[in-house]
Specification:
The complex is a heterodimer of chains A (458) and B (336). With 458 residues, chain A is an alpha/beta fold. Chain A is built from eleven helices and 28 strands. The relative contact order of chain A is 0.10. Chains A and B meet through strand 7 and helix 11 of A and strand 2, strand 3, strand 7, strand 9 and strand 11 of B.
Chain lengths: 458, 336
């Protein structure tokens, strides 16, 4: 958690051991206080201050330094990071993506400065602000590291009084990071910091609830699992604001992020659909053709040019899309940028067909589910986050066959065995009351080895 | 519904934009709440001198919306509608007053529109819903079978509370009117709690405006504009607006999906228009917006000649507009 108030309760009181202190070079009394109170302290600094912060952290025997990087500093970071780590072997040097957004279920009204902007529309499904795309991008940029991100709380929706983060807000933020297997620097709002340091009973109660959600994700020692995906998004501009990735996340289409140089067979293993948002060079185009030949689908977006798959006859699908049959697969060329990411995400789901979705949810419009598997390719775990923050009864279908479905949640602990049903190569079950966070363990008596059960570890 | 001073112990989780409670002011304070129900986000903004009172009233209004959803949902097996759909075939089934009222209104609209709006279209909707989610388009035989189940004339209403289906496969779907009824009920609840200036928004598709924001004469609502050029707007005071539009076409194939089914053809409606309707209740604007989308501007205008106090606008992606003004005036702004 990130703390700025000079007064600080003890680590054992707050239940979090790692404390992040923004450092501007000054000798902050908060650092001394945090060490006394039993915290492992990290200094958060921009890249320009990295060396100074590392010296200070070493001198004071702090836990580490966190580099808050701007997207334009990626190249500079790649050079600076190894130097910094080798010069300070006892320090943890972590890279922070500070461009996260507050996870939330949003409405359509825009309220600013006491005025309300209303725009009518057809009935919209809930808009979910999620950090899944950012995390997938971080995983690609720093594959050896667990993604680390933070966000600023959304400014007040009402102009008349400051909106402060609630238990539900904090719990959702923690649940999202935990479910997506990423690390979050949780900013504790100043009012709550002050109340907690004054041992205010109401604040203590709120924090207790937040902590119970955090504990759900702490201390898991199970075998490390990899996020499973059977859709790949290839882009040369990795932008977490990209709405296509956000909409794939919201539609529970598990995806991985690649750059054009990644278009090698090994990185596409287990993938059924590739969406390409970059102009493929000759090698990449050949690899995409080979990939499609094996019965899979490639969607190339707004990348006009001459490609090997165009040797096949072009079959117009609609005004903007042309299809090429390649072996037993297909390459689709969309001749313009994606104008409607919502429709595009639904199209990707349709392209997966009935047999290929890794998972499908019903009554889960506010829920994001992320499957995880082992290196052998079988899904072992599905993490769920409900952005509505109130219990929903979610029906789930996971590709594969499982003999036991164990459900755990912060409210009910581990594990309730859910009734399951097998249907056409899928296992179906119902989570009766997903509030904010939940996790399903999938177990099988005999390891699944059929092609349909295999997913690509990321 | 009476407005109790205290909210029931089993509070419905609601996101409020005012943290804490008990703030009072000489000038009205704005309180915003949102809640996921009926598959979308309902939002209420209300002005009151006490934020605690406004929050309590909003909470009560959300409880009322949940109550309506529990009656009208066809996703909940135990809803009154689901029970009716299971048991009213050639049998007079008793239903709660809200359900009777909504179905009665729906049948009226079905008659008015000569079946373009048909409350019994559910079998066709379900057939095409599967196609929309990736299954193959239904066969001609499947379509024919489903069409045989559709027909509002086969619904018999026996006042005060009995309904019979004269078909063995009829299913009702209140998706085109239920949110409108729910916002009307929520408005009545807020009114009974002494809230007079509020806006209730059902996922953007139906909004009911009560009173006006402080210092203003009405609530300004921008209407759906698929062209991005017309910017239609309306000032609402104690009125409702609803918007309907067909699901956008696939980007990657010629998939003929769409959530609004034309009962005449039995297939998803093909139209590029978005239509917005302003009426004095949410129930009316909601039902009319779907009806007018199905009818199109020409026939739709004819229908509106028989319904006083309603305004409507059709807008195409090419900025073609058709307007009827028999109620609040629709202003055409200009995008900057």
């Amino acid at each position: 958690m990130e703390w700025t108030n000079p007064a600080l309760p003890a680590a054992r009181e707050l239940g979090f051991g790692d404390l992040v202190v923004p450092w501007n070079g000054a000798n902050s009394p908060l650092i001394a206080s945090a060490l006394t109170q039993g915290y492992r302290v990290y200094l958060e600094v921009p890249l320009e201050r990295a060396s100074a912060a590392a010296r200070e952290a070493s001198r004071r025997r702090l836990q580490g330094v966190i580099l808050n990087i701007q997207p334009s500093q990626r190249e500079e970071l790649e050079k600076a990071l190894p130097r910094l780590r080798s010069a300070n072997p006892k320090l943890r040097v972590l890279v922070l993506d500070g461009n996260g957004k507050q996870p939330e279920m949003r409405g359509s009204l825009v309220i600013k400065r006491d005025t309300v902007l209303e725009v009518s529309s057809p009935t919209a499904q809930p808009w979910i602000d999620t950090n899944l795309a950012l995390i997938r991008i971080e995983e690609r940029l720093h594959p050896a590291e667990r993604p680390l991100y933070t966000f600023a709380w959304t400014p007040s929706e009402s102009g008349q009084q400051e909106r402060r983060a609630t238990v539900a807000d904090y719990s959702l933020a923690i649940a999202e990071a935990g479910a997506f297997h990423a690390d979050l620097i949780l900013k504790v709002d100043e009012h709550l910091q002050k109340s907690l340091s004054e041992h205010d009973a109401e604040a203590g109660k709120l924090w207790g609830e937040v902590l119970s959600c955090a504990k759900f994700y702490m201390g898991k020692t199970a075998r490390p699992l990899q996020a499973a995906a059977n859709v790949a998004v290839v882009a040369d501009d990795l932008d977490p604001g990209d709405e296509v990735m956000n909409l794939l996340a919201r539609h529970n289409i598990p995806f991985k992020v690649l750059v054009p140089a990644d278009l090698k067979e090994s990185k596409l293993e287990g993938i059924d659909v590739v969406a390409v948002f970059a102009k493929p060079d000759k090698d990449a185009a050949e690899r995409l053709t080979t990939f499609a030949t094996g019965g899979r689908t490639v969607v190339v977006v707004d990348a006009h040019g001459s490609y090997p798959w165009q040797k096949s006859p072009a079959v117009p699908r609609n005004e903007h899309t042309v299809a090429y049959a390649v072996g037993s697969g297909t390459v689709l060329e969309l001749g313009e940028p994606v104008s409607d990411p919502e429709t595009f995400a639904q199209d990707i789901r349709r392209l997966l067909g009935k047999q290929n979705p890794l998972l499908t949810l019903w009554n889960g419009l506010t829920v994001i589910a992320v499957p995880y598997g082992e290196h052998d390719g079988s899904v072992k775990l599905v993490e769920f986050v409900n952005y509505a923050g109130e219990p929903v009864r979610v029906q789930v279908q996971v590709r594969g066959s499982w003999s036991t479905i164990g459900y755990e949640s912060p409210e009910h602990g581990c594990c309730q065995t859910l009734k399951r049903e097998e249907r056409n190569g899928f296992t179906e079950f119902v989570i009766p009351d997903l509030r904010i966070a939940g996790r399903v363990h999938l177990e099988t008596e005999q390891p699944a080895t059929s092609k349909d059960n295999r997913v690509q570890p990321r | 519904m009476r407005c109790a001073k205290r909210v029931a112990i089993a509070m419905i989780p609601v996101f409020f934009s005012l943290w804490g409670s008990g703030q009072k002011s000489d000038t009205p304070l704005l309180v915003h709440g949102k809640k996921y129900v009926m598959g979308t986000v309902f939002e209420i903004v209300a002005y009151d001198k006490s934020s605690e009172h406004a929050s309590m009233a909003i909470e009560k209004a959300f409880q009322e919306i949940v109550r309506v959803d529990d009656l009208l949902s066809n996703y909940k097996a135990e809803s009154a509608l689901s029970k009716l759909n299971r048991s009213a075939h050639f049998h007079a089934q008793e239903v709660p007053p809200d359900v009777y009222r909504v179905i009665e209104t729906s049948v009226e609209f079905s008659r008015l529109s000569k079946g373009k709006f048909d409350v019994s279209v559910a079998p066709l909707v379900n057939l095409w819903k599967a196609a929309l989610s990736g299954e193959a388009a239904p066969s001609a035989a499947q379509e024919e079978k489903a069409r045989g189940c559709v027909g509002y004339e086969k619904i018999e209403l026996t006042p005060p509370d009995r309904i019979t289906f004269h078909s063995d496969c009829m299913q009702l779907d209140l998706g085109a009117i239920g949110k409108g009824y729910a916002v009307d009920r929520a408005a009545a609840t807020l009114q009974s709690c002494g809230i007079h200036d509020a806006l209730i928004n059902a996922g953007g598709s139906t909004m009911v405006a009560m009173g006006s924001p402080p210092g203003q004469t009405a609530w300004l609502v921008h209407l759906r504009d698929p062209s991005g050029k017309v910017d239609p707007q309306v000032m609402l005071k104690d009125e409702s607006v609803s918007t309907s539009e067909q699901t956008p076409a696939s980007l990657l194939d010629d998939h003929a999906g769409g959530h609004i089914i034309d009962p005449d053809s039995g297939r998803p409606l093909k139209t590029q228009f978005a239509v917005s309707v302003i009426a004095n209740t949410g129930t009316l604007s909601d039902a009319l917006s779907t009806t007018l989308l199905l009818l199109g501007p020409e026939e739709g205008k004819g229908l509106l000649n028989r319904i006083p106090g309603v305004s409507a606008i059709w807008v195409s992606p090419q900025a073609q507009t058709e307007t009827v003004t028999r109620g609040p005036r629709i202003l055409l702004g200009a995008r900057s």
